[in-house]
Structure formats: structure tokens, C-alpha cells
Structures
1.
Amino acid sequence: MDYRLPELNYAHFDRDLADLRDLAESLLTETFHVTRAVRGTAVTDRETGKVTVERVDVWTGPGGLKMRSLSGFFEARPYAVGHYKNVSVYTLRMPHGAPVMVGDIVEVIESKHGFEGRKFRVAGQYNFTYQSVKRFMGEEVEKFG
């Protein structure tokens, strides 16, 4: 694969941006499955207190995952029981057509790097001009099933 960036011609900026997005999407190495909670379907088990929510499939497609340690930030080091806990935040990358919203659950179903089975809650979206792919903040909710 040729990883050289195309020469940008501002007269064809939209076309060139689409080409760059295609190049960025070709580098996504995981496959994500996204589900969304159905409003009004929460049920609490009276014995265990566990809340279950009906979920619907939203999207399955290519994605990328990157761990970002926020240990340098005060908010990311909650203090409890005499100890600090470092919290890691993940960046989830998906193509522009992915209909993902804050609160959705993203499961890694295929990975070249051993992330299969990990689940993340979409906690926010990074917004900036001319993104090559959509980027979301993710919080891990379950490890390996």
C-alpha cells in the first residue's frame, strides 16, 4: 500500500479530503459492533439489584482503538480509601458514516492486536475541523465478556 499523502489541490479540496478519509479508514484494524439502549426498557432484578436494558444493534464496521492515559490530570486520579486510582481513557476511531452517539456501547469483535471482547461506553466525541475519521472518548465497561 502506498502511504504517501496525495498532493493537495485547494480547487478540489472536497475530493482530496474524501481521498484522505479513505486512506485513514484503510488503517482501521479492528471491527466494532455498536449497540444502543432502548429508552424505557430498564428492568431491575429485585434480588441482585442488577439493572438490565434492552439494546438494539446500530452498526458494525471497521474501527481503531487507542489507549490514552490521563494520569497527569487531577480529574483522572480519583482519591478513595487512601489511594489514588489512575483512569485510562480510550480513543475510538470510526468512519464518518458510523451512526454512533454518546452512551452507545462499542464491542471489539475482531482485532489484530488482541482486543476482542472488550466493551466501551462512548463518553464523548472529539470535534475539530477536517477530521479524517470520527473520534470518540471511550470508557471501558467490561473486560473480556
Note: The chain is about 10% helix and 40% strand.
2.
Amino acid sequence: MVLSPGRIVFVLAWLLLAFVFVLNMYLRGRFRAHIEALLCVVIIAASALAFLVWGWPFGLLTVVAWFPFTIALKPIARKVAHRTLGYRTGVDHYAAERDRQSLLSRRGDSLEQIMATADGRRQTDELQLARIAATPGVAAILREQSISTGDLSELLVTLRIAGLADLAWEILADPNELVRLIEFQRSGGGRDAMYEYVARVRDLR
């Protein structure tokens, strides 16, 4: 497959689009969800353009390349977001779900529908916690600290209550950060201790 000037321009634009998409995941603001929706439309349109103009082999290649592009760009996007916002952020995987639950409540949907959504989230959490607990570094910390998977679930709740939902999985999966979280949980500190912990995790400037 020959990379013509048009294809080279498209690949560069595709790479830029991937970076903006990932960066938006780390940014904050009420328009973030709208920007994400707009970017999704642009991504679909660009994918269709690649198939129509350069054929299915190139179109398929661009779609497949999207995933390694976004993975490779995450560290850069995280640093740019940190510098832009002045504090550390992560990807809040449940932001869209919370919005959906809020919409269900406002629409007057049944309690059963809302609870079914919550149950699905809880099952997903349990699977993710089990995967994290099975990693060697975290498993060693759990043994040293006499922490069970159930205790790990409580730590997840603590992080979400503290407003750290976007960093929760990242913290739990990092042995060093997990130790600091356990120490904070066991300190029994009040609101001031909570603020201090959040400020340290967020790396507030």
C-alpha cells in the first residue's frame, strides 16, 4: 500500500483526532460530554471517508490503528491535561452511566430499571476488583495489609465519595498508591484529612 500525500495528511489528521479524543477524556467541564459526542461523529465521518476515497484496505487499517493510537497517546494527554487544569485527572468510566441514571430518575422510570442499571455496574466493579486483586503487586499488598477483596470494594467506595472516581481504578491498581489509601483509611481522619488526601492525590498546585 503506497502512502500518497493525501493518505499521509489523513493519517496525521487521524492521529491528531485520536489525541484530541483522549485529551478530552482527561479534561473537565460541562461541555466535555458534548465535545465527546461531536468527536464521535467526526470519527465516524472520517472512517467513512477513508473507506470511500482510498478503499477498504486503507479504511480498515485506519480503524484498527485507532486503538493503538489512543493507548500510545494516553500518557501525553494525561500530562497535557494536568498542565492545562493544574491538577491530576483520570478517565471517569462511569460518568456517562451516572448521567443516564440521572436521566432515568428525571423521566420517572421505575425503581426496578434504575436498580438494574446499578446492579450491572456493581457486577462490573466486582470483576474489575478481582482482576486488580490478582495482579502480583496488589496481591502482595493485600496479603501484607490483611485486606480482602471486600475491603478493596470499600476502598473503591471511599475514593468515589472523596470525588476521586476518575482516579479510583488507577489508584487501586498501583501498589504504592494503594498503600497510601489504606493508611489514610485506617487513620480515621476527619474532613481535614480527607481534603489533604484528595489534594495530594490530585497534585494540586
Note: The chain has a mean pLDDT of 85.
